Amino acid sequence: MAFHLIRKLEQFTRLSSDDKRILEQAASLKVRRLGSREDIFREGDKPRHINLILDGWACRYKVLEDGRRQITALLIPGDLCDVHMFILTRMDHSVGAITPLSVAEIPTDTILEITHGSARLSRAFWWNSLVEEAIAREWVTNLGQREAIERVAHLFCELFLRLRSVGMTNSQASCPSFELPVTQEQLADATGMSTVHVNRTIQEMRERGLIVWKGKTVTIPDLEALQDVALFNANYLHLDHAGQAYDANEP
Amino acid sequence: MAFHLIRKLEQFTRLSSDDKRILEQAASLKVRRLGSREDIFREGDKPRHINLILDGWACRYKVLEDGRRQITALLIPGDLCDVHMFILTRMDHSVGAITPLSVAEIPTDTILEITHGSARLSRAFWWNSLVEEAIAREWVTNLGQREAIERVAHLFCELFLRLRSVGMTNSQASCPSFELPVTQEQLADATGMSTVHVNRTIQEMRERGLIVWKGKTVTIPDLEALQDVALFNANYLHLDHAGQAYDANEP
DNA sequence: AACAAGGGATAACACAGGTTAACGAAGGTC
DNA sequence: GACCTTCGTTAACCTGTGTTATCCCTTGTT
């Protein structure tokens, strides 16, 4: 059940079969299912447990008094909602389902046991948090400096790489593709644009042959071209496998 | 020397005199001084130690290939640059001095000793990281949803509260003020606006009586009015003192 | 089969904010 | 004291993006 998480963490460090068993177990304790547009938790809630996305897409978002909404992160299978958030008394944002969702609810005590029991898993969780922070910084840059087409292209590049790192892309025939179960309105909330302009921008990306988007499937004919348009530099995702390799001497 | 950090962490939990002594010691091991516009570290560097801002202002920033620059965070005394960043192999952004700066360089081993030695300090560091993340999410929202005057007003509100939480504001005469050693160009890089439009926006804020900004001093005649313009909600700063109080039984 | 609802696509128009350029004030240097 | 550089200010003009309003298509419902 924790397949995606394990696969993601192994971008950072190899895990022992013990580590994997521990994660599998934690992820199977309690599984919650939500319909799309339901919230996993809301701003103001007390953090109760760690949520691990098992299946489906979700988003972090904040809503201003007057209703304007910003999606601050897109969450895909394998994403952990804030390993240490339990330290805070109240959530300062909400997380909602984009598609129907299965979420593992992992008690904070279980997380603490895991991190105390395995230095490797503890470091892997840290790495995971650091990457999340790096993504947030990149989003700030994206919203602050990139114009519409660059911004959307950048988001597509990021999603493609993140999905690939958990095995959720198709790359047969040299033309990579992935499922994007997101409406243009949600894309607008994520990029700080209006829906109309998201649509215009998508049209332009199609005309320029940067993407093919039919139904829920996005195909990227030329990843390099898309990255060039986006001024995309993948270093912030830290997918370089350069962390410490699994050392067989460690338990 | 670690005065500001201690004061900030005590927003979350009371610290014992032992905790404070440990922090003081760590902060005095090695102090580095930089001139304004020098970098503490650059994108691509290996993280070597944890940097604690003792005195002066700094900023995290990212630069796109074509030179566009986004400031993703403003750092003030008491701010720690990424307690756990040493897990990553390369920095994905730079941190530069805005004013002349003193920075304590704390070895990663020292940080690990501290967190292993004191559960309270460990939690306090986590709280600190979580607040930094929350600020990053708020900046995403700021850039994505707020228009110019709201955006600048929001930044001023945030800075005021953060400075106040480390004792760096003046509140005599019911009219709070603080030192803002930041140029309009840097403000532009932080808010994703052009310098010209930052200036226009500042002028409007002055006309509307929201701020007085002379030299490096900003005065806020009516904080509530400023917060209203900014659609500001302070919950993301988690300054509520609601964390666990200091328990005398803990070491 | 008829209907409703959500999502995508377009067009026309408006305006917030970017760009360029020029000038002045303040502060640092020799 | 003269010079230079950085920063703030302002004006004129331009453009990217938001707004409003339709229309169409798809999908699910009864």
UniProtKB/TrEMBL annotation, chains A, B:
UniProt keyword terms in alphabetical order: DNA-binding, Transcription, Transcription regulation
Superkingdom to which the source organism belongs: Bacteria
Pfam families in the record: cNMP_binding (PF00027), HTH_Crp_2 (PF13545)
Keyword Chaperone: no
GO biological process, one term: regulation of DNA-templated transcription
InterPro entries associated with the record: cNMP-bd_dom (IPR000595), cNMP-bd_dom_sf (IPR018490), HTH_CRP (IPR012318), RmlC-like_jellyroll (IPR014710), WH-like_DNA-bd_sf (IPR036388), WH_DNA-bd_sf (IPR036390)
CDD domains: CAP_ED
Domain HTH crp-type: 146-224
Entries under Gene3D superfamilies matching the protein: Jelly Rolls (2.60.120.10), Winged helix-like DNA-binding domain superfamily/Winged helix DNA-binding domain (1.10.10.10)
Single GO MF annotation: DNA binding
Protein name per Swiss-Prot or TrEMBL: CRP-like cAMP-binding protein
